Amino acid sequence: MSEGLKKSPSNGFEKSLTTEEQQAKINEVRRLVGPLPEKLSIYCSDASISRHLRARNYSVKKATKMLKETLKWRAEYKPEEIRWEEVAREAETGKIYRTNYIDKHGRTVLVMRPSCQNTKSTKGQIRYLVYCMENAILNLSPDQEQMVWLIDFHGFNLSHISLKVTKETAHVLQDHYPERLGLAVLYNPPKFFEPFWTMAKAFLEPKTYNKVKFVYSDEANTMKVMEDLFDMDQLESTFGGKDNSGFDVSKYAERMKEDDKRMPSFWTRDSHPSAVPQPALKSAASLDVSVDSHSDASENDETDCLDVNGIDSEILSLEDNTSATDSGRKGSENVHPGEVKTHNDRAHV
After folding, report:
1. Which of 43, 49, 140, 318 is at 20 to 30 A from 71, Cα to Cα?
2. Is 12 helix (H, G, I), strand (E, B) or coil?
3. 109-123, pLDDT tens digit by residue?
4. Region (Disordered): which ranges (predicted)?
5. DSSP characters for 32-101?
6. Each residue of 64-86: b (16+ CB within 10 Å) or e?
């Protein structure tokens, strides 16, 4: 094995860096990003920058570009300001929801049921997905930064396949929520799903689709994935567990409304004492969005830089708003929790 590389069970080959080397790269990315409004500054915690670096194999240039694109997206989309009332229609059938249990590694669990799709708007579906992601992150324990997806294929048919939604979903999750997925379990996918999965993989990065496990209720070797991951007394019967309570949208709505009340304080500096204070950014003109050509001088990769004209000053003037708020069938494999976190940082920011 080449020096400086390590084999990760879920992520393939990655650079192996010391804690000091990782921190130096985190600091360099933060320097290149420059001053930000409070919410965006809070988003740029050490843990967040570390996730972007891992997603780009510790290339400072690529990680900085990725982070800046996400900062622009967050400034425009304001995912932390989405509230239950806006997405309740999308949630009625339980097509995506956060469970009231976690896995054995302390990871938040999101259930996805494609057959329960109840709307045709890609925009609405993606907005609800983003809401669920933000809620799952809100409910992560301080020492965990990844989540598990349980995808139930009961009742799934060809009419539920949408390459457009799949492509947009992959874009949002990979580009704006890097390293948030710990594991995705595809539970009882039908045979006709396999060609679609082959096409869908084209939208996914290898380190993402390598985290996908196929589990079949009639195959004991794959069901061991569930037994290794969950307390079977808490796991829903849909996934081979013993809990028969099912999804109740009324009860779920109450949980989400309570979480909505917590969201504004989650995006204040008092909640994130490790966030690095920065001067408030009044205008995009203050933001140097180019990536230093001398950064990562030992790397041969070339990365396009963001154009300052692509970030509107009105979008980034947020200071006054900071208080608002492989596949086929596989046997069981060892499941590993998230990557090592950087020190003195809340991992889920």
Report:
1. 140
2. strand
3. 999 999 999 999 999
4. 1-20, 263-349
5. HH----HHHHHHT-HHHHHHHHHHTTT-HHHHHHHHHHHHHHHHHH-GGG--HHHHHHHHTT-SEEEEEE
6. bbbbbbbbbebbebbbbbbebee
**Could you tell me the pTM of the whole model?**
0.77
Distance CA 328, CA 249 (A): 33
| C-alpha 270: how far from chain center | 23
Confidence of residue 62 (pLDDT cuts 50, 70, 90): very high
CA atoms of 103 and 115, how far apart (whole Å): 24
> Is the domain defined by 95-246 classed in CATH 3.30.70.270?
no
Three-state DSSP at 24 gives helix
Q: Which amino acid is at 154?
A: H
Give the pairing of strands 96-102 and 212-215. unpaired
- Sign of the Cα pseudo-torsion (120, 126, 129, 130, in order): negative
What is the predicted pLDDT for the residue at 245?
A: 93
Note the pLDDT of residue 204: 79
For 52, residues 6+ apart whose C-beta sits below 8 A from its C-beta are: 29, 63, 66, 67, 70, 178, 179
**For residue 37, what are the CA distances in angstroms to 27, 29, 269, 270, 327?**
18, 16, 11, 15, 43
C-alpha pair distances (Å), 183 with each of 107, 172, 240: 10, 17, 17
Distances (CA, A) of 232 to 117, 226, 329: 27, 8, 22
Domain ranges in the chain?
A: 5-79+273-321, 95-246
Give the integer Cα–Cα distance in Å for 305 and 303. 6
What distance in Å separates the CA atoms of residue 222 and residue 328, rounded to the nearest whole number?
11
Confidence (pLDDT) at 242: 97
Q: Residue 44 phi/psi, 5° resolution?
A: -85, 50
- Tell me the average pLDDT across 230-251: 96
How many CB atoms sit inside 10 A of residue 115's CB? 14
